[in-house]
Amino acid sequence: MNLQTLENTLSQETFSDEDLLAFLSLTEPALCSRLWREAYDRTTRVHGNALWFRGLIEISNYCIYDCRYCGIRKGNHAAQRYTLTLDEIVEAARYAVRAGYGSVALQAGERTDEKFVSFVEEALVRIHRMSVEEGIAEGCGMTLSFGEQTEETYERWAQASGNRNALRYLLRIETSNLPLFRYLHSGQGGAQKTWEARLQSLALLRKLGYQVGTGVMIGIPGQSLADLVRDIRTFESLDVDMLGMGPYLVSHGGAMVEDGMMQKDVLLTLTRNMLAATRLALPTVNIAAATALETLVPGGRSLGVLSGCNVMMPNVTPQRTRASYQLYDNKQGTEAEPDSNVELEKELVAVTGREIGRHRYGSSLHFRSRRGLPAA
Ligand code: SF4
């Protein structure tokens, strides 16, 4: 593809599979830059100049599953396990609320036992109460990421959150290549995952009124560019409101070390191409710049914003446990003090030209249009 062909393709409003494949295939720096710029500009046109922050709290790294790629899988006996206390969770959320982030994101390894379900429920009730006391009349926004659960559990958590208009759930499909999905989720040390169960959970979340998010890993060994195009089409068919996608990074606590990973420069370019192609195909969804991008290259999240992302999830987890939530090797944000988020904000604004959308929920235009809700 030359620059003129790219310009012609970018002038369209909708894109064929062939167009998306061509975007993903770009390697020439000038062409890649043009693609990323188009994605950034369309993000500005559709969403404005605000970058939405969610304060990320990693509440526990216990997990009953054994996904091969993951450093906190059950079969990794070297992982140091922890669960934050309720007070620690609420204080971390308070930090995010006082920083004006408007939303928190709660994440953990997967458990489905009643003790865990009621623990999360209590945490949500307390965070909601705290955020109302801190001056957010309807309570802060919440993004939950606790994997596949029953309908009853999703409903209990929705009620506990106290604010269904700013309630989100992130459940990534990881890949739409089904043999690869089965390989990724066939570790022997824990419970097994199925594609059907993943889709069922996403449908349940939608039915219960959550803003639904999903995503994939980019550059998984054995994944093709055609797989990534199918991933984008799957996002469309699921009618998702938000996406979280990052590069596949090897984890020495996982069980895929011998499969290797892509060379870093190539992986960075592919990740940015995928973010941009997804933005062009799904203009109204929120797309988060993943921490994995920052691990791949310093300043990676800014590069994500410059490729079409409009959400950032700075880590506000207490320092004592951050190093233990190692989904992949050398995860960034494990050393930083909470106030380093202030530095992160300054860097982001300087590099990306965005402004931080403070004291607002920042729900995706896709969700707000569907529900007839007012501005973000
Ligand atoms: S990816 Fe999630 S469900 Fe799978 S092992 Fe890691 S924490 Fe558990």
Structure characterization notes:
The chain is of the alpha/beta class. It has one domain (35-371): TIM Barrel, CATH 3.20.20.70. It contains 15 helices and 10 strands. Strands 1-2-3-4-5-7-8-9 form an 8-stranded parallel barrel, surrounded by 4 helices. Helix 1 packs parallel to helix 3 (29-47), helix 2 (17-25) packs across helix 9 (225-238) and helix 4 (86-98) runs parallel beside helix 5. The model has no long low-confidence stretch (mean pLDDT 93). Bound molecules: iron/sulfur cluster (SF4).
Q: Rg, please? A: 19 Å
Beta-strand residue percentage = 5-15%
Order of strands, main sheet, comes to 1-2-3-4-5-7-8-9
Determine the number of helices (DSSP H or I, runs of at least 4 residues).
Answer: 15
**Distinct bound molecules:** iron/sulfur cluster
Alpha-carbon distance between the termini?
Answer: 38 Å
CATH class (first level) name: Alpha Beta
Low-confidence stretches: none
Oligomeric state as shown? single chain
Q: What CATH architecture label applies? A: Alpha-Beta Barrel
Estimate percent helicity. Answer: 40-55%
Largest sheet: 8 strands, parallel, barrel
Please count the beta strands (DSSP E, at least 2 residues each): 10
The rough form would be described as globular
Q: How many structural domains can be distinguished in the coordinates? A: 1
Structural class: alpha/beta
